[in-house]
Design goal:
single chain; six-stranded mixed beta sheet; Rossmann fold; 271 residues; disordered N terminus; alpha/beta; four-stranded antiparallel beta sheet
């Protein structure tokens, strides 16, 4: 009998005219028997910055990580519902989570550069993904996009761990965009940085939003108001399950929220 090779299903990533860059439908995430978030319907518009805000423990980071299946790295995690990307449910059994994370990049709360040179931090992901272009050009282009090139162009072979915290975070952003994602997820990317480094990260987000869709989790209300186009507010119920209260333009959420709970949180009455 002749055997033919079976090609694993791939995630379709062709440009789409869809209104939303990514969308969750009835999203629930469990850690063992504990439901961390429940029944989340959230639509993220393309090439905008969307902030996810809410009190500690309301599932903000869990929702963010659900968008590129990062929660699956926790052995007890289980997800139900749908996350739609180009019309495909990212949680369909045929979808490869590695491909998902290539298209939807992640920047974490604390800078986590590889213990390699600045150059290799950028080039490494491109190499393993079979990048065919010039790595030198890729490194320069992505570091320029991350507003870091002028600061490191003369020390590309030095360890990335020698950079300041703010520089390391911008390097991690450059490393993320080097693999050409469509979405960038940021989990409190400036919470470990000083005010000057935080301002540089915020300026960088505005620049990147011209080409990328960005979703940011932040506990800083002022930051959400400064950087985001749209905002989603989460709370938790009596069972500590996070849920979406409302979402919309940042201007409306901060000046004319539809839900009293949103107004109470933004004005500091709780949280």
């Amino acid at each position: 009998m002749i055997q033919t090779a079976v090609t694993p299903p791939t995630l379709v990533v062709a440009p789409s005219p869809a209104e939303y860059a990514i969308e969750t439908r009835d999203l629930n995430v469990y850690y063992g028997s504990f439901r961390a978030v429940k029944n989340v319907d959230l639509a993220i518009r393309p090439r905008r910055i969307t902030s996810i805000i809410g009190p500690s423990g309301c599932g903000k980071s869990t929702v963010l990580r659900a968008l590129n299946r990062m929660n699956e790295l926790v052995p007890s995690a289980r997800t139900t519902g749908e996350v739609l990307f180009h019309g495909h449910n990212l949680y369909h059994p045929d979808v490869d989570p590695v491909q998902v994370r290539q298209r939807i990049g992640m920047v974490f709360q604390r800078p986590n550069p590889f213990p390699k040179s600045i150059y290799d931090n950028i080039a490494w992901g491109a190499r393993i993904n079979g990048y065919q272009g010039s790595l030198d050009e890729l490194v320069e282009r992505t570091l320029t996009q991350a507003a870091l090139w002028d600061e490191v162009k003369d020390k590309l072979r030095q360890s990335a761990l020698a950079l300041s915290g703010g520089q390391q975070q911008r390097l991690c952003i450059a490393r993320t965009i080097a693999v050409q994602p469509e979405l960038i997820l940021m989990d409190e990317p400036a919470s470990a940085l000083d005010p000057i480094a935080t301002l540089k990260i915020e300026e960088l987000m505005h620049q990147l939003a011209r080409d990328y869709t960005i979703v940011i989790v932040t506990h800083n209300m002022q930051q959400a108001a400064r950087v985001s186009d749209e905002t989603a507010f989460f709370m938790m119920d009596d069972d500590r399950a996070g849920y979406l209260v409302e979402s919309g333009s940042t201007k409306r959420i901060f000046t004319n929220p539809r839900d009293r709970r949103t107004e109470d949180y933004i004005t500091g009455r709780f949280g």
